[in-house]
Each structure stands twice: as structure tokens, then as C-alpha cells.
Design a protein that fits this description.
mainly alpha; Rhopdopsin 7-helix transmembrane proteins; 8 helices; globular; Taste receptor type 2; taste; receptor; G protein-coupled receptor activity
Length: 311
């Protein structure tokens, strides 16, 4: 039985490691390409600013998440050290919340930039969107920092309480399971997810209505317009995020349920889906951006040639 447990743990860590490192590479590619463009142009447009922060937050989330999963499976006692676990939990919550807030900003940006409505407030947002984006990103960072601090405070208090219950004040009881004490942390992050989900859904519906109305006007006037392609590309990006967001939200809810039950097999499958989201969605964003797509295809072709040459 012990050998089977060890084999399962090694397989789980290997799969999650492969998935996390692939996602880190994809997001590192986005960050590096935008930084190169920043150096060349000495400025960034709003879309590039959002993608830069999104890539950084997802890279950090995957990196910290992998460290957390690796320690929880291979060296679980290291997470029981009072100073380490609250920091890891807080940093992961910060990166995760930043990821979702900035993804929401990207969806809202696409909606305002591409959708066409005659509403005066919408027109005002469309004109001012370039100035609004930096403030949205700053607000995303600050709100994520608040969430990270709250999670750290909750985690730290729980650990202090558990330590005070032990006989020596240092040794942890085996019966104390860390996961079952973090309903508050799940609630805080769940509130962020729900708010983000609402904003993304509204953006998708508005863009879909704008696309439908634009298509109807084109059929009436027998005209062709390039904005149709912009509508469709934005819809693909938002809908892909919305679908993956729903999967991520379900996995997040299941994480709380099965963590309390201690079912490691189910938790492993949930982690596979959770760590797939930042990489897969970033890959979709790359192939929806002509410049990033062209560079990515060049790199893949170069790697393929090198592999074929060695063989």
C-alpha cells in the first residue's frame, strides 16, 4: 500500500508539474513579447498593459500553486511551519484574484472598445477607456492585495489557535487538518469570483447584442464592414473565458467540498483543471493576437526544426 501511495503521489506531482510549467512558459512568452514591444515603442496601449499584468499574475499563480501542491504532496510537514503556510496561501490568493480581476478588465475593455451603442454613458466610456484602464488595473491590484492580507490574517489566526491547542506549542497533532479551517478564505475569494463572473457575463451579452444589431444593419444596407471581424474575435475571446471561468468556478467550489472530506484522488483531478485554466486561456489570447501568434508560430517551427535535426 505504501508503494502504491508513493507511486500515485509521484505521478500526480509529475502531471501537475508538466501542466504548471507549460502554463508558466506560455505566460512568460506573453510577458516577454510585450516587454520587448515596450522597449521598442517606449509605450504600451491599453490592451498590452492588460495582457502584461495578466501574464505576470498567471505566471505567479502557477509558480506559487505548483510550490504549494508539491509541498502538500511530497513534504506536507513544511506547510505546517507557522511562517510558511500563511505566506503561501496569501500569495496564491493575491495572484489568483489579480488573474480574475485583470481577465475581467480585458473582457470589459473588449466590450467598451468594440461594441457600438448610442447611450451617452457608453460613448463616454468609449472615449475615456484609454485613461480608465490604468485605474482599473491599479484597482485590481489593490483589491487583490486586500484579499491577500485578509487570507493571511485568517490563516495566521487559525494556525496560532491550533498551535495553542498542542501540548508543547510546536508539535502539530496529526488529526488537525489544515483545509477544514479555511471556509472564510474560500468565501472571500468566492466573492471575487462571483463579482468577476457578473461583469464578464454582462460584457458578453452586450457584445453579443451589438454583434447581432451590427449584422442586421449590414444585411439591410448590403455593406461589408471590418468591425464585424473585430466583434467576432472579441466574442471568441470573451466566450472562451466565460466557459473556462465556469469550469474554474465549479472546480473551486469542489475544492472546498472535497478538501473537507480529504478525498485526495478527486482533489488531484480538480487541481489538474485549476492549473489548466491560466495556460489554456493565455494560449487562446495569443492566437487571437496576430503579432503574438506570428511570433509563437515562429518559435514552434524553430523548435520543431531543431528536434527533427537531432533525430
Amino acid at each position: 500500500d505504501q508503494s502504491n501511495v508513493t507511486s500515485y503521489a509521484a505521478t500526480a506531482v509529475a502531471i501537475v508539474t508538466l501542466e504548471a510549467f507549460a502554463g508558466m512558459w506560455i505566460n512568460a512568452f506573453i510577458v516577454s513579447m510585450i516587454c520587448i514591444a515596450w522597449v521598442k515603442k517606449e509605450t504600451l496601449n491599453s490592451n498590452e498593459k492588460i495582457l502584461l499584468l495578466l501574464g505576470c499574475s498567471r505566471f505567479g499563480y502557477l509558480c506559487i500553486g505548483w510550490v504549494y501542491y508539491f509541498l502538500s504532496v511530497i513534504y506536507p510537514k513544511y506547510l505546517q511551519v507557522h511562517a510558511i503556510f500563511p505566506l503561501v496561501e496569501s500569495a496564491q490568493s493575491f495572484c489568483n484574484c489579480t488573474n480574475f480581476w485583470v481577465s475581467t478588465c480585458l473582457c470589459v475593455f473588449y466590450c467598451i472598445k468594440i461594441a457600438n451603442f448610442r447611450n451617452s454613458f457608453f460613448i463616454y466610456l468609449k472615449v475615456r477607456i484609454e485613461r480608465i484602464v490604468p485605474w482599473l488595473l491599479l484597482g485590481s491590484l489593490l483589491s487583490s492585495l486586500v484579499v491577500g492580507i485578509l487570507v493571511y490574517d485568517v490563516t495566521d489566526k487559525v494556525l496560532c489557535k491550533n498551535i495553542s491547542l498542542t501540548s508543547q506549542g510546536i508539535i502539530w497533532k496529526a488529526s488537525i487538518r489544515i483545509d477544514e479551517h479555511f471556509v472564510t478564505s474560500f468565501f472571500i475569494i468566492g466573492f471575487v469570483f462571483a463579482t468577476s463572473f457578473t461583469a464578464v457575463t454582462i460584457s458578453a451579452l452586450l457584445l453579443l447584442f451589438s454583434l447581432w444589431r451590427h449584422k442586421r444593419n449590414m444585411q439591410t444596407n448590403s455593406m461589408k464592414d471590418l468591425s464585424m471581424d473585430a466583434h467576432i474575435k472579441a466574442m471568441k475571446s470573451i466566450l472562451s473565458f466565460l466557459v473556462m471561468y465556469n469550469i474554474h468556478l465549479v472546480c473551486f467550489t469542489l475544492t472546498m467540498v472535497y478538501a473537507l472530506k480529504g478525498q485526495n484522488n478527486v482533489m488531484f483531478l480538480i487541481y489538474v483543471f485549476l492549473y489548466a485554466f491560466p495556460g489554456v486561456h493565455s494560449l487562446i489570447l495569443i492566437f487571437s493576437n496576430p503579432k503574438l501568434e506570428k511570433t509563437m508560430l515562429r518559435i514552434l517551427a524553430f523548435v520543431k526544426c531543431k528536434v527533427c535535426t537531432k533525430q
